[in-house]
Amino acid sequence: MKFTVKVLKSSPAKRLLLATVLLTLLIWLAQGFSPQPLLVNRANGSYVVTDKNGRLLRLSLTSDEKYRLWTPLAELPQSLQDATLYYEDRWFYRHPGINPVSLLRAVWSSLITQDRRMGASTLSMQLARQRWRLKTDTVDGKLKQMAYALWLERHFTKTALLEAYLNLAPYGANIEGAGAAAWVYFHKPISALNQDEARALALIPQNPHARAPMNPAARQRLHLAWQAAYGNDPGFDRLWFRSRKELPFGAPHFAERLHSLHPESATLSSTLDGTVQALSEELLGGFLRQHRLQGVANASVMVVHAPSMAVLGYVGSADYFNADIHGYVNGLKSPRSPGSTLKPFIYAQAITQGLITPDTRLKDTPLRLGDYQPENFERNFYGPLSATEALVRSRNIPAISLLAQLQKPTFHQFLLQAGINIPKQAANYGLSLAIGGAEISMEDLMKLYGMLANAGELRELRWLNQEDQPAGKPLLTPESAFLVGEMLESNPRPQRSFGGRSFGRQRAVAWKTGTSSGLKDAWAIGVMGDLLVGVWAGNFDGSPNRHLVGRELLGPLLFDILDAVAMERPSPVDKIPPPGLKRIEICPLSGQPVSDWCPHRKEGWIIPGVSPIKTCTLHRSIRINPANGLRKCPEDDTPGETRVAEFWDSDELEAFRQAGIRHDNPPPFERLCEQSRSVDVVIDSPKIVSPQPGVSYPVRGGQQNGIEFSAIAAGGQHRLFWFVDDSFVGEGATVLWPAKPGRVEIVVVDDQGRSSSLVVDATRAE
């Protein structure tokens, strides 16, 4: 003991060392009673997005304009850890936060002998400086740094401190942490660095201002540091450094959308296909240049792999940085009026509920539903159409009529089941849901159209490459999804693309367009094999443009994208009809199973036990008196001439007449027939279309009021007579009744005595 004291007295340096050790021990003991500090604030970090092949799309800046990407120690290569400790702090695992030997050597060299300035900062001290932004060029600052280092060592393991250091160390300019540095300098994740790249990064934090390889001079200084650390190792010559200016800003809307879906993830390996994204952006740019003079300035594109619902292409606007078109707005996420793009799902529901088949005859004639009298986009009527024709031609009247018949679920309930965020109750939308009354985003539309490719199963969009596909939700039957897909495949392709070339016809495409009310939004969505593509055009400020018509404007762009993307992918296997379908012979005009009187026939699909299979009643056998050309009653057994006649309803005949198409009525009966013996009584009874059952009609006192009576007469009927509570009020397909308050029975009778009736409440309006 005496020898030790004597030696210490003879050496001021050793006395300083002993004092330092004692002071460190006292601080160490005192800090055991202090609370644990926050080691790293991960809330304000960057995020990185890569495409499905690992190529960098985006490295974001933090709110304080730094590149700071949290990376767990397990993902940091061992070569980087070893090189950092070798170069920065070889005694890291043996000291308590301060290295007394290094500190003594630095004090002796810098202050006592003043030979040269030496640093004594341990890795823990450097972490403390970074964590609390300390100024350590003064004695007070250095002492504070040492105290914080001891505090950190008192509360955290060495591996936690090493992890924190490598995530906060400066790597030049505004780059913090090795994870961000790997992406900036090498465009790859830190885990993918080779040994040479890792050793080069380890040299930067000691002098980041001089060594960060952002220019030739800095790279030369980094090379000198490499030679000092590793001698003549040639590894530096194999390195290829990138600069911050080379950081990509690819698919910006997609990157932001992915971050919003997974805000806690620092690294997002996405499903985006770089080739598909580039094709989408290029074709969209050419499309907008073509239509610039028409005032079409903005559009969006989304491409999805239908079986997995993986997002392959995502272009939220024409130009992210163009403030004139509000390019930063994500048009694929924003709800817009979908126009007619929801109609396929009305038809799919109608098939599922047994209301129609693809060949069922639907009426495109004037329709009144209470106070609502819908119109078609072109403000005309085509008359009777097959369900397929009505869908392909996007007629409003048939779709609205079908929507009114849907039950369990209604169409509003169906959309809610599909997860569509429509904020209002069904009554607020009414039947306008068929023509775009509720706003919806492209992302949601893509999920709906995905059901047509996935046997009626609703699947969520998949954004991450390694993400498991959650179980789907069956909302349509496989049969109805297949049939609606076939119906949409009969939609003719556009004749030419906007680039002027003809479209190929190798692959079937199920596609639909939409145009919002007021010409503010144009849509086109198509399914081709395993590809699902949606395009939208419009203005984010809601301004209209007469050129924003879905089929005319966006049909060519849709097919250009489908064809271009398909060229990069193998051809899918042809789809197989579900086993629940059956082919039968049907009448082309009525869409019903053929009767003995149908002159023509074709094959069509039905779902046995679900589809309506009533035999054709459009074509019927009648008997004519050759002497006068009039129709003989069914009970008349006298000789006559047998013919086949077509029995169209009066509204259909009127539509034919307006279109310049002639369809003759069956001749009238030569006398009043016995109704009890007529097989056509139920079929041919007139149908009241106005007023509507269950609707209360207000009548204002002291004013002239009128309620319109309207009916459809079955084929062969020429005259209709109207009665209110047995009082005759008029003759014709439409009459106006001067209404009075009260409950009344309305009866319409044709010239053969066949009738229909309805009870209506006319209430006194206040």
Automatic annotation (TrEMBL):
Entry-linked SUPFAM superfamilies: beta-lactamase/transpeptidase-like (SSF56601), Lysozyme-like (SSF53955)
Name the source organism.
Methylomonas albis
Q: What class of enzyme is it?
A: transferase
Give every Glycosyl transferase family domain span. 63-218
Q: What is its EC number?
A: 2.4.99.28
Catalytic activity as recorded in UniProt = [GlcNAc-(1->4)-Mur2Ac(oyl-L-Ala-gamma-D-Glu-L-Lys-D-Ala-D-Ala)](n)-di-trans,octa-cis-undecaprenyl diphosphate + beta-D-GlcNAc-(1->4)-Mur2Ac(oyl-L-Ala-gamma-D-Glu-L-Lys-D-Ala-D-Ala)-di-trans,octa-cis-undecaprenyl diphosphate = [GlcNAc-(1->4)-Mur2Ac(oyl-L-Ala-gamma-D-Glu-L-Lys-D-Ala-D-Ala)](n+1)-di-trans,octa-cis-undecaprenyl diphosphate + di-trans,octa-cis-undecaprenyl diphosphate + H(+)
Q: What is this protein called?
A: peptidoglycan glycosyltransferase
Gene name in the database record: pbpC
List the Gene3D superfamilies. Answer: Biosynthetic peptidoglycan transglycosylase-like, DD-peptidase/beta-lactamase superfamily
